[in-house]
Every structure is written in C-alpha cells, then in structure tokens.
Amino acid sequence: MRQEEAQEAAEAARTAISFFEPLLEELNSIWIGFVQSIPQIVLSILLVLVTWLVAALVSRGVHKAALRAHARRALADLFQTLSSIAIWIVGLLIAAMVLFPSVTPAQAISALGIGGIAVGLAFRDTFENFLAGIFILARQPMRKGDHIEVNDVSGDIEEVTIRDTYIRQKSNELVIVPNSILFKNPVEVETDRPQRRYDIVVGVAYGEDARAALDVIKQAAEGADEIDKDKGVEVYAREFNSSSLDFTVRWWAGSAPVDKHKSRSAVVLAIKDGLDSAGIEIPFPYRTLTFKEGLSIESRTGEGDEEGGEG
What we know:
The protein has 311 residues and is α+β, with helices and mostly antiparallel strands. The chain has helices at residues 2-68, 73-99, 105-122, 124-139, 179-184, 210-222, 257-278, 301-310; strands spanning 147-150, 153-160, 164-168, 174-178, 188-189, 195-204, 233-240, 245-254.
C-alpha cells in the first residue's frame, strides 16, 4: 500500500511539473526578453526626456520670436502649442521605434495617418473652428476691443481664442461665437478705423425755399460739438417724400458706438434749433383724400333742436 501511494504521489508530482513547466518556461522567456530589452527601455525613456526638454525650449523660443514679430498673443500661443506638439510626435515615434525594433518608420507614419483621419472625422466641427481660428488670428482682421456685428450679434471683442471668439454685448451679456461663423459670414468691424461716417435724413416742408433750407441745415450741423470739424459736413437733397423734401446729412465722428449716439444727438438738436430759428417748417405727414364725385355736407343740428323742442 505504501509503495502504491508513493507511486501515486510521484505521478501527481510529475503531472504538476508537466503542467507548470510551460508556464515557467514562458515566464523565464519573458524575464530574459525583459532583461535583454532593458537597454532599449532606458534609451526610450531618455528619448522621451530629451523630447520634453527640446519641446519646452523650442516652444518657448517660438513664442518669444512670435511676440517680437508683433504677432497677437493668442497667435503666439498657437505657434508655441503647435511646435510643441510636432516635436512630441516626432520624439514619441522615435522612442517607439527604439523600444519596438520591428516597427519601421513607414508603419509608424501609416498608423499616425490613419489615426489622424479617424480623429479628424470624429472632431470635424472642432477642427473646422480650430482652422478658422488660425486664419482669423493670422489675417488680423479684428483686434481685442473692436466693436463688430455678425449674424445679429454685436458687441466688443473680449478675446479671440483658437476655437471661439468672446463678444461682450453693450447690454453686458457675453456671447461665445464659434470661429467658423466669423470665418464664413460677413463681419462688420465698426471700429476698424478711429473714425467713421454717419448720416441722417432731414425733411422740410414743400413751401419752404429748398436752397435756403440746405444752407441752414449745413451751418447748423457744422456747429455741433461731437463731429470732426476738419472733415466738415455734407448735405444733399435726397428725394421728394410724401410730406416733405428730404435732405441727407453726413458727418464724421469717432467709430465707437457711444460716439455714434453722441454725435447723432448733437447734430439732430443743432439742426432742429437752426430750422426753428430760421422759421423753416419740419412738417408732419400730410394726407390728401381725392373723391371721384363731389360730396355734400349735411348738418343735423336743426333736426336735433327740433326734436328737442318737441320733447
């Protein structure tokens, strides 16, 4: 019995050894491979550290160079980010090829291209706004503080980022507009120049002397305080309106919205005072009714009196 038990124990031991032997061999092979690849791992780590150092130095240098070239800070930040990303991509590809010698440069570039296409399709709108932001920052059509109007949104630009533009409306609400909207649609930059031209329409009665009225309007507008007197005032007869002969009055003032309101108020008040002083009428709308046949007028005053008398 003991001999049989010993044989069974030996058989079980041989079975266990045969079961664990491939696993042990595999672990031993992995350990040997790991030990053999330690130089490659160390070299890859060193390459990553070198990539980090080079990316930091180059991106900082690009940022300073862009600022010295009078580029916008947001554009300088963009160049800094793009240069850092490019260096990291190259460094990581080299580190991967050192760590995995079977990976060839062509395979790494192909994998990078396929991954880029997949990411581009997944984030199409994001990349569209990103590219639009690059073009807007590169062309410099707008500056921080400019007053713009696009797609029924108007206000002052607070910041132009890579993806969005922050617009502060005059009522103090903040509107975040994707850069693709600014890039695809017409944008009115009202403060692109320090001054801009404004105009209003002034009507006088048909019974007044039109040339005298024109002179009075021009002299009155030229006396307004909020306009640019060096560029003067232009007044032109505009059209025959239903109740008045209309004149177009043009003048120059600051391009900020507050300058528009101040100068317009000053010009309107000055013209009103000038026309009143000259006795020239600013008419209300007149209506003339014409009937094909004559109309008779009847008075019922007598009938009412008679009925009242009978009562």
